[in-house]
């Protein structure tokens, strides 16, 4: 990635805080900078801002929010940090997890109350590593809606979001201070923009095959189901300026991407009693043990394929809250059978296989014992009832979790812990709190890191910019 230290151009424009990437991180950073009364611009490669944010469910985990309190949920930073450390088996940076625990709630409350991005705690997505309900969703329960709400908030706040503006180089002096950026516009037009502070909100590197092969070789050949424009640009610029990176092998995966339709199968179907079998009709994993890590056992099955099995009652209930379930229905991804035998035939599964796995589950439910993978099918979930349903799925890489080393205000750091002069990173461009493996990802941490670090970076950059306007540099 290009860092240019000589031939510094005459910059046509100057904006104090420049942000690259118009996903949840970049837009939140811009709102935070505007709240400090400082001008900020967001530069976005795409014609229509989309990013992994729009592809997501829009769920943001946050601690001690107004919505949690309204619902009588007693959460705390300590409980959140304990959840993070348990999920990552002690690998996450505890200080960063604590900072995120402290700042995620106020960030979500601020987006809701000050910027008209309503986010309410959700009860469908429980467990999966969070010991309290703390996933917050916009009313329509989609990432597309979250992105639109943030864009509308930026418009109201007077933030310019420049689209079709790909940043292709960063200009810096010999002290690694960013001077500005080069922007590629349509029709081959090139513009140069100077800044006091640069915020990298370019997400991770799931769309960069070479980086994947280097850092996550096991997933280099797997399906990538994040935004193709996430090519690691920000991480590479940071590294070229002397920044350190952490946990580059970490990622968020999913074992239940409908194949070939490429629609996420809602996990509540499994939380509420559904199960997975491979194409030989055998269960092979604890479906709730690790939603992100489940891509590994699924991809290890014959042909890398599995079936999510549930029933019509669950399907109808899920339609009410899940856009993905509605899409699965619309594109005909859901197979149905009036009996186990009929479902086995329509899914081309061995005769008797589903009936047998279901019988084992019911036996365990009656005995109160866990299954061979440690899953409890207890009385909180109901036995599946005909008609039965199934969706064919595979495993995929959603989002990389490693990135630039940052401090408590999202300033980018060198290996020795010193901050670069005027560079920030958040969301997928920064390190996360997921440890070094796929199994360390807690649901909804991706957007949590995007908005929380975005808010911290935007506010700090704006404060520093205001100070530097009055203090000689
Ligand atoms: C299917 C799916 C479901 C998910 N569900 C959830 C969920 O429910 N909850 C959760 O917390 N996380 C979820 N995630 C992860 C979540 O989407 C990401 O963690 C989050 O969107 C990251 O936000 P971001 O702002 O860092 O990146 P993005 O939203 O990807 O935005 C980055 C932007 O930077 C732009 N960009 C990149 N390089 C340049 C450049 N050189 N010049 C200009 N622009 C550039 C890109 O075009 C993009 O628009 C999901 C991910 C996927 C794929």
In short:
By secondary structure, the protein is of the alpha/beta class. The chain contains 15 helices and 20 strands.
What profile does the largest beta sheet have?
9 strands, mixed
Strand content: 15-25%
3D shape: elongated
Could you give the distance between the termini? 28 Å
> Counting H and I runs of at least 4 residues, what is the number of helices?
15
The low-confidence runs, each spanning 5 or more residues with pLDDT under 50, are none
Fold and architecture overview:
The chain is of the alpha/beta class. It has helices spanning 24-35, 51-55, 66-70, 77-87, 94-115, 143-157, 209-215, 233-240, 268-271, 295-299, 312-319, 323-330, 340-346, 353-367, 445-470; strands at 3-4, 13-20, 40-43, 60-61, 120-121, 135-137, 160-162, 166-172, 178-184, 190-200, 223-224, 245-246, 251-258, 275-278, 305-311, 335-337, 388-400, 403-404, 411-413, 419-425. The chain has two domains: 3-250 and 401-470, 3-Layer(bba) Sandwich (FAD/NAD(P)-binding domain), CATH 3.50.50.60; 252-397, Succinate dehydrogenase/fumarate reductase flavoprotein, catalytic domain (Flavocytochrome C3, Chain A, domain 1, Alpha-Beta Complex). It has 15 helices and 20 strands. Strands 1, 2, 3, 7, 8, 9, 10, 19 and 20 form a nine-stranded mixed β-sheet that branches. The longest helix has 26 residues, at 445-470. The relative contact order is 0.19. The site of flavin-adenine dinucleotide has 45 residues, from helix 1, helix 2, strand 8, strand 17 and helix 15.
